[in-house]
Amino acid sequence: MKIQESAENYLETILVLRQRIGNVRSIDIVNEMNFSKPSISYAMKQLRENGYILMDESGYITLTDKGMEIAERIYERHKVLTDYLISLGVDEDVAREDACRIEHVISPKSFEMIKKAYKESQNR
Amino acid sequence: MKIQESAENYLETILVLRQRIGNVRSIDIVNEMNFSKPSISYAMKQLRENGYILMDESGYITLTDKGMEIAERIYERHKVLTDYLISLGVDEDVAREDACRIEHVISPKSFEMIKKAYKESQNR
DNA sequence: GTCGCAAGTTAGTCACTTCTAACCTGGTGA
DNA sequence: TCACCAGGTTAGAAGTGACTAACTTGCGAC
Questions:
Q1: Cross-referenced PANTHER family, in alphabetical order (chains A, B) (predicted)?
Q2: What pLDDT, in 10s, does the model give residues A66-76?
Q3: From residue A20, how far is each of A13, A30, A38, A54 by CA, in Å?
C-alpha cells in the first residue's frame, strides 16, 4: 500500500496534536481538521490496518515507527516550507496553507535544496 | 464549475502542444500525457462542455479565451518554478516534475513571491 | 471495393477521499 | 437507575480522475 496524501496529513496531524495536547483520540483529529467523525473513523481504520498507528481500548492513538517516520518527514517539510514562504514575504496564513499542500507533492531533492537555500538566507 | 487540477493540466498540455506541433488533436494529448484514449476523450468532452476548448469537425482543438487564460497561468508557473528549482541545484527532470505538481496547489501570492525572489537572484 | 488502421467514443469499473444518516456503547449526573 | 451525551462505528452515496473492453468511423493502400 502506497501512502496517500490524505494519510500523510492525518499522520502529521496526530504528531502535532500529540505535541500540543498529549493523548490523542479520533475526536481531537475531527476538531483539528474539520472533517466529519465518520471520515476520521474510516481513515484511522485504514491507518491502523496498515500499521501506521495503534489504538488502545480507550481509543487513544499512538504512531508506530513507520507512522512516526512519515509524520516527522511531513511535519519538517511543513515547518521549513512555511518559514521559507514567510521569509519571502508571504502572509503567515497563506504560507501555512501553501506549505500544507506543497509538502505532499515535493520531491526529497527539491525540498532539501529549498531548505538549504532558506538556511543560507538566514545566515546572512 | 470550479476548475480542477486535472483540467489545468490538460489545458496546459494543449497550450504546450500547440506551440510545439501547431494543430492539436486528442491523440496528441494521449501521446504527451501517457493517459488512455478514453481518459482524454472524456476529459476533452468536459472541457468542451464547460467552454474551455473548441473542437472542429476533424477533432482539432483550440483553447477558448477562458481556457487560454488558465493554460497560460499554469504554464507560466511551470516555467518559473522549474527554472527556480534548477537555480537551487535541482536536476532538470526532477525540477520539471515538482513544478508540474506545485503549479496546481500554490497560491498566487506565494507564486509571486517566489517569482520575485528568483528574478532578483538572476540580477545578482 | 474492401481491408485495415488510426482516431475517437461509449459503457462499465475502480480507487481515493470525503460526506450524511443512523446506529452502538459506556460513563455520568440527577 | 436510567436517560443522556460524547465518542466511535457502519452503511450507503458522491465527486474526481483514472482504467479496460468494445464499438464506430473515415481514410488510404492494395
A1: IRON (METAL) DEPENDENT REPRESSOR, DTXR FAMILY, IRON-DEPENDENT TRANSCRIPTIONAL REGULATOR
A2: 999 999 999 99
A3: 10, 15, 23, 19
